[in-house]
Write a structure and sequence with these properties.
397 residues, Nucleotidyltransferase, domain 5, 2 domains, eight-stranded mixed beta sheet, 15 strands, 37% helix
Amino acid sequence: MKNSLVLVLNSGSSSLKFALIDSVNGDTLLSGLGECFGLPEAVIGWKFDGQKSEEAITAEDNHHQHAINRIVKLVDDLGFSEQLVAVGHRAVHGGEKFTSTVRIDDEVLAEIDKLADLAPLHNPAGAKGIRAAMAAFPALPQFAVFDTAFHQTMPPKAYTGAISRELYEEYGIRRYGFHGTSHYFVSREAAKMLDKPVEEASFISVHLGNGASVCAISNGESVDTSMGFTPLAGLMMGTRSGDLDPGIIEFLMKKGWSQEKVFDTLNKKSGFLGVSGLTSDARGILEAMENGHEGAKLAFEVFTYRVAKYIGSYMIPLSRLDAIIFTGGIGENSLPIRREILNNLKLLGFVEDVQGNEAARFGAAGVIAKSDVLGAVAMVIPTNEEFVIAQQSVALL
């Protein structure tokens, strides 16, 4: 549809993902990734109409700006400039300040900068991408969609840490949660599939990818989620440890480990990678399991057990359950992982629909199990965070 396109940007410290989204139907017309920013081998690649292209980024000072300038030219060369109505940015951390999508101005940008303490790897990079996009598209309105915003409906009993109150009051230490845009999207899609108003539905949304989180959703609102003050909390992930006794940190530092080494290990050398001693990729774990690798088998068992434990515990904040929703790269595609999680939920009455589970892969949605005990289903719904960012940006125009 004419004049319905939104350029969606996701700026990381060394990368920039982008997609040109039709805000009406969710179609992706153009997508790409700039990566290795700050290194001599920085590149930007894109996919359009089934064709892929890539080129080097040669700018030495600001790879984000160079990449966005290249995107501007690409959009113009492909004839989409006249249909572009907004730029939508994925912003990781909105703290308690941002509870919904906002139009970006100098004040909003300053607040994102202030929140850098809560997300030192993400917010400064996001702000850099926003500034580059504002310079490249000065006439277009720009919007920020926060990963944390959907979880701002959690009650105090869910987000308050059992620590000194002054740590919250002085430093804002509490549970914030992430993947909010994904949990928001799949809960709305699940309600449509069940032909039920989302305001009257209850779900447990399970986003499984290299990063992973669970969210309890009651009447369309997040009431609890597994990630916490940072994305390190909650489930075991590709390279992140997930929940851990904090005393281990003190123990390792007394053994001579530096703070940097401890958190590098917990963030980048744990999870699937750490337990298996092999790989952070779920596909590699499953393949190694088939070949008898004991570390891979243990990683599979720890991961699926922990996901099932969180699902079971998230029955507590809900008065009923309509569906468990699997999404994310692993949740959408890994049949063996979904099957094992469901096996761990037999007490809740879930019986796998083998045919349905095998069919719900590679972009296909569907019901994969049913529970007569709860009157609920388990389903797979592919997430589409870019579509949410495009829709919410246009909604504020």
